[in-house]
Amino acid sequence: MWLNDSAIRREGNARFLLIIEEIEKWKLVSSNGSTMLRALASSLRTRVVTICLRTFRRFESKVSSR
Length: 66
Known about the structure:
Blueprint: H1 2-32, H2 35-65
Helix pairs in contact: 1-2
């Protein structure tokens, strides 16, 4: 059971890190782009972070409920 919990945590952490990398790419694009592109990037970053945190919390709750 412990191995499964660790696997779930690793998968959640890996997804979280991939999303953070995407956010960093958007930051680079938005810092060089137009105001409209910056607004779009900001909106997408906010949505991605929200989705990511929600997913990460689900993983954490699954692990803690076992």
